[in-house]
């Protein structure tokens, strides 16, 4: 199977995909999140994996917007414990470091630790593993990168410091996107469903929208709002709730929800994700 | 009065502040959003202005986080119609342009227009007006900036194209933050209140939270969720609702809300903001 992810080899998305699908698949690196969606849409990959939310920095809103634009379904999720490593070329010492490269979220998540290098400039790049590749390819001897240990292995680089994230409760939730919705599940597995909708212009509309779940004792897991383009300060709501869309209470709730929405789409039902640690390996 | 805003002179925040407070105040430029909050906290400015939400790109989540960290109150809001201009050094022609500098949101909001320059690289910088200052200071003759017309005036630069934003429904909502909450209002003016809270771990907790407003016919204007640091996948909710926190129904709703929240803070009550266009001027 081919699984598309955004970023370079050794990125957290690839580590999460290896845990979700097992390591013997083909993981296809594409440049941007939107390329993950188009790779799956056009059949160049069977599935894609995208980060949707981090426990410290919040939702990755761009991917909420992409979920709406594409015609893919969410078919799975996995939670990855994120550990950052300070990585440099061999021979580079901490006092040599004048620049630190990483994804803006990587830099933000290690902000306190990086105060050890008060003179170093933080330079944002598109992807954590790309930061490692960049300092290796350009043989930068005054620079370090913040990335996964896997990126250090893949690019044969030196680790100056490990687990440098300021807050250890650093978990990223990834979603699996596929062309076809998932409809069959092992009966024992708790399910989740994600939907997106916009509400009719009624008083208490959001309250009414949530009531269709509360009235049926269906727990909400997450709510996220995004702007409707061209309609200032109207919102799309993304909701995750417990259960599958084909289960009786959930199907009734969705029918009820249709009465008060202008637009409603089920993004997918899927098994509730496991929390995993990255597994690093020589390859 | 001194009003702090983040970014260079001619930024949209400064244009919004001039409309809110009138042009005869002292507008103090600080580097980052967090510096706006600290300038007000430490008394170096009487008020601060921060963008909180754009009608196309959504919330500025960093400022939601800053609102929680600081002890300031929201005392006002204003909605600014955002128009982008393509700005370059005098003598630079469209076919010279190999790089376009702007804030990432400025670049994103003009994405289609910038396809006219397929060979030009989009370079993100911290602030739209800073992009203009940069290409002027460095005398870049292969570059343009996307920014306000005011930035073109302030830095005496040439306008190559105007109103280049892809979607004209481009409005940014700014909040005014101050040391003391606002408690007296002209009686005719409709008010809004912003609160932030985290919920007890109860089934249907969010539904119950919203019900305290619905039961009293208080309209919700906006809901936003942000992660609680150190508690993966627990959320803080930011809610804007109609009315002032001292009005009877609203005060009752807030008392009711306390019963089901672990944490509740009123960020402020303020007059509902006007929608304005920027007023440009030679200075």
Structure, described:
Two copies of one chain form a homodimer. Chain A is of the alpha/beta class. The first copy, chain A, folds into three domains: 2-82 and 170-181, Periplasmic binding protein-like II (D-Maltodextrin-Binding Protein, domain 2, 3-Layer(aba) Sandwich); 85-161, D-Maltodextrin-Binding Protein, domain 2 (3-Layer(aba) Sandwich); 191-271, ACT domain (Alpha-Beta Plaits, 2-Layer Sandwich). Helix content of chain A is 25%, strand content 34%. Chain A is built from eight helices and 16 strands. In chain A, the strands form three sheets. In chain A, strands 1, 2, 3, 4, 5, 11 and 16 form a seven-stranded mixed β-sheet that branches. In chain A, strand 7 (99-102), helix 4 (104-109) and strand 8 (121-124) form a beta-alpha-beta unit. In chain A, helix 7 (205-214) runs antiparallel to helix 8. The radius of gyration of chain A is 21 Å and the shape is elongated. The A-B interface holds A 53-59, 61, 167, 169, 171, 173, 203-204, 206-208, 210-211, 213-214, 217, 219-227, 229-233, 235 and B 53-59, 61, 167, 169, 171, 173, 203-204, 206-208, 210-211, 213-214, 217, 219-227, 229-233, 235.
Shape of chain A: elongated
Q: How much of the sequence of chain A is in beta strands?
A: 25-35%
Question: What is the CATH superfamily label of the largest domain in chain A?
Answer: Periplasmic binding protein-like II
Kindly report the oligomeric state of this protein.
Answer: homodimer
Distance between the termini of chain A: 19 Å
Give the strand tally of chain A.
16
Low-confidence stretches of chain A are none
Biggest interface and residues each: A-B, 37 and 37 residues
Largest sheet properties of chain A: 7 strands, mixed
Query: Might you state the CATH topology name of the largest domain in chain A?
Result: D-Maltodextrin-Binding Protein, domain 2
Estimated radius of gyration of chain A: 21 Å
Portion of residues in helices of chain A? 25-40%
CATH architecture of the largest domain in chain A: 3-Layer(aba) Sandwich
Mean pLDDT of chain A: 94
Number of structural units classed as domains of chain A: 3
The secondary-structure class of chain A comes to alpha/beta
State the name of the first-level CATH class of the largest domain in chain A.
Alpha Beta
Give the count of helical stretches of chain A. 8
Task: Give me the strand/helix succession of chain A.
Answer: EHEHEEHEEEHEHEHEEEHEEHEE
